[in-house]
Amino acid sequence: MDSILVKGNGPLSGQIPISGAKNTCLKLMTAALLSDEPLTLTNVPRLSDIKTLGALLESLGCEVALLQDGRVMALSAGEITNRKADYEMVRKLRASFNVLGPLVARAGEAVVSLPGGCAIGARKVDLHLMALEKLGAKLDLNEGYVHASAPNGLKGAVIEFPFVTVGGTENALTAATLAKGTTVIKNAAREPDTVDLAKCLSSMGAKISGAGTSEITIEGVDRLHGATHEVIPDRIELGTFMCAPAIAGGEIELIGGRRELLSAFCDKLEATGIAIEDTALGLKVSNTGGRATAVDVETAPFPGFATDLQAQMMAHLCTASGVSVLNETIFENRFMHAPELIRMGAKIDVQGGIAKVTGVEKLKGAQVMATDLRASVSLILAGLAAEGETLVSRVYHLDRGYERIEEKLGAVGASIERVKG
Ligand code: EPZ
Question: Residue 208 belongs to what domain range?
């Protein structure tokens, strides 16, 4: 298994291009199942998760072609030839569960494996199921699979989520596009990913209003047609790389970055003493020296501080002056990076969903590993300013969500290399 070796190497400088958003692209790909005409996605990130979902879609009868060096994906679900998403596929990638809504809406039937638990929390799918039941699907849970059927089609309904679920909103949204009548999703996710999905569905002929607010209304249509859609920039990759100069010093321009994709995160980063400037090409982040200042962070659904940036922010706060309190409100087990950062010399006390970080002057390199994507990348970031070498193992987590991370950070002066294992 490959590892990544990072050495503290002084301030960073240069530009990093931001790739298309993984979590957006995955949901856009599921939309291809809704139409017998082709959906073409551009600005596709070259990541293993994208390939995994591509393979699942192929198993359902959707043709998937990667063009232009993997940047463009053509999907064509002329006919759904299989309605079953296997455990082996869904286990590897939870976002696979989002084929459920499109499959049952288009084919009238779907058999999708329940995803099971996950390193960052239980991650139930009860709200996805509640939404589909409201839309009239008959559900049966059997041997680890959800059997959903709606032989006469889905029917519009009012779906009210008790709390925000991104995946649940997106499963309901895609399914409702082909339901008869009007669907109203209340307490809907407002994430940019969900808004981009609604935009893509609209260009396929769906009638959607209110995306980006907490109430989305969908007027069902008989069929959707083909479209071409550009995936938005990855705001989590953007926030991750914004932490790099914050931690290691220097100045980096993030090409394609936009503040409105992560304004709560930008506000907090600025509060630690980091400067962020809009440029013609994206966002420039500067750390002109001096120690960062501690801040308190509470994760929340969009437009709040993204849980997917909590680990990276913690890596930054490990060397800030003062005490920072991080409150993780979305997932119950999302501090797996803390014990690893402690091995690098950080002072962190975790009690349930709250982590108290007392800043130290400097971290020290160590051999570390993490069990999820964002935790892994926080260790690389910490290594950028640590004394000595940091070896991050289980790199396959990183390859799921960061495109060529060692090349992107290497290009701005970081000492980072992949060690084949
Ligand atoms: C999406 O996961 C993202 N994944 C996650 O990114 C992200 O952390 C999360 O949204 C929150 O922003 C993708 O888009 C592929 P949720 P999702 O449904 O949709 C609970 C990353 O690192 N819940 O908004 O699964 C759930 O357990 C990943 O890229 C239920 O209880 O998240 C969690 O506590 C990790 N029942 C909370 O809701 C349900 O039916 C929010 O989850 C659904 C969710």
Answer: 22-230
**pTM greater than 0.70 (yes/no):** yes
Catalytic residue among 25, 118, 200, 318: 118
Task: Verify that 98 and 194 share a domain, yes or no.
Answer: yes
Query: Residues 352-381: pLDDT tens digits?
Result: 999 999 999 999 999 999 788 999 999 999
Convert the pLDDT of each residue in 217-259 to its tens digit.
999 999 999 999 999 999 999 999 999 999 999 999 999 999 9
Question: From atom 3 of ligand 1, which residue's Cα is the shortest distance away?
Answer: 23
From the CB of 26, is ligand 1 less than 6 Å away? yes
Q: How far is CA 138 from CA 108, 134, 135, 148, 307, in A?
A: 10, 9, 9, 6, 33
Instruction: Identify whether residues 209 and 255 lie together within a single domain.
Output: no
Nearest C-alpha neighbor of 52 from the set 400, 409, 404, 349: 400
